[in-house]
Amino acid sequence: MKVVYDKGLYLPEIDLWMDAKRPKSRSVISHAHSDHIQSHAEIIATPATGKLFEHRVGRARATLLDYNQPYDLDNFRLTFYSAGHCLGSAQTLIEFNGERLLYTGDFKLRCGLSCEPPEVVECDTLITECTFGHPMFQFPEDEQVHKLLYEEIDRAFRLGLQPMVLAYSLGKSQEALKVLLRGGYSVALHNSIMQIVDIYKEMSIEFEGDYRPLDLSDMDGMVVMMPPGAMRGYAVRSIQNPYTIYLSGWGMDPRARYRYRTNSVLPLSDHAGFDDLNRYVIESGAKKVYTLYGDHFFASHLRQLGVDAEHLHEYSEKSSPVGKRPKAKRKARSETLSLLDLIESSTS
Ligand SMILES: [Zn+2]
Fold first, then answer.
1. Who surrounds ion ligand 1 at CB < 5 A?
2. Total structural domains in the chain?
3. Is 344 a residue whose pLDDT tops 90?
4. Ligand 1 centre and the CA of 33: distance in Å?
5. Pick from 35, 101, 103: which is nearest to 292 by CA?
6. Chain-centre distance for alpha carbon 86
7. Which of 7, 302, 308, 323 reaches 20 to 30 Å from 55, CA-CA?
8. Is the pLDDT reported for residue 75 higher than 80?
């Protein structure tokens, strides 16, 4: 099956967009993180993603499909499988002319506390994210990271500092809230996180323990949780003696805390690490692998192992070798090149 990437994933033979970054008449939404959603006329998503999409973008015509429920659409069959990335996150299996193509979207294989357990899906063609597709990103067991988080929070309290856990409002925050409540902490939540916790609860995810909306005048003994962007707010900057702990897979890089200007970065990730990306490629049985969202390294690593793999680029005049041709030649070629040709020439 032909695969192109042009501000979203496109399968031209069946005219299907997935995670399109520009408004389309119809697009699959793998999950509701902001870099995967757009105001499309119609979306195909899981019920939880549909709810989160409505919260973030607004109402759209929606075909909502549960996991493992095949759906025949035009001339192909579409089935969602859990991606384990955040609530409702889905891998998309497309079956067309006897071929199985799987798009993982963002995924992880470690089982989290706050969303559906992931699974590996067998396929012929695999399109996988490779955000952490480098050997430096071999994530420790989640329990180990939880322990480090508890230790850092306890140390902050001992030193009279205000522990502040920074995590994206969808997915990471709900996972971190579960971890903190399990550790017996009282947690004060930024409004944007609380709203999504409420949606999780509507979708039957329980949070047991002491948590409440953040009140900057009453944080004594509480762990504060907020998205990283909220730290720039004037009121938040007035918090005395903050001790900031950022939860991100990038924490495997020892320089991360300087980049994020936080006291610490702990590698609690909602993505697959290098070992799980490799495991997925092998266990899926894919004969062709396309990589997406990371850089070239993972695809070249797979090629060295004998896997037919290539990295999908965003097409742009600037980045494409086609774009670097002399003007006259480029104009002549651009009239005859299809979008697919352009993408393929930029990925070779
Ligand atoms: Zn995501």
1. 33, 106
2. 2
3. no
4. 5
5. 103
6. 8
7. 7
8. yes
Range of the domain at 128: 4-136+271-312
- How far does the centroid of ligand 1 lie from the alpha carbon of residue 124, in Å? 24
Whether 256 and 231 share a structural domain: yes
Ligand 1 centroid to residue 309 C-alpha, Å: 22
Which residues neighbour 160 within 8 Å (Cβ) at sequence distance 6 or greater? 241
Provide the CATH number for the domain around residue 192.
Answer: 3.40.50.10890
In terms of domains, do 258 and 165 share one? yes
Q: How do residues 233-287 score in pLDDT, each as one tens digit?
A: 766 778 889 999 999 999 898 888 778 889 999 999 999 999 999 999 999 999 9
pTM of the model: 0.87
Domain contains 214: yes
Could you tell me the distance, in angstroms and rounded to a whole number, from the CA of residue 305 to the centre of ligand 1?
28
Alpha-carbon span 326 to 123, nearest angstrom: 41
Residue 248 lies in a domain: yes
Q: Write out the two tokens for 294.
A: 């990371």
Q: 106 C-alpha to center of ligand 1: Å? A: 5
Do 100 and 162 fall within a single domain?
Answer: no
| Average pLDDT score over residue span 214-242 | 87
Enter the tokens of residue 23: 């408004």
Q: Residue 315's pLDDT is what? A: 52
306 Cβ partners below 8 Å, 6+ apart? none
Q: In this structure, are 28 and 98 located in the same domain?
A: yes
What's the average model confidence in pLDDT over 177-188?
98
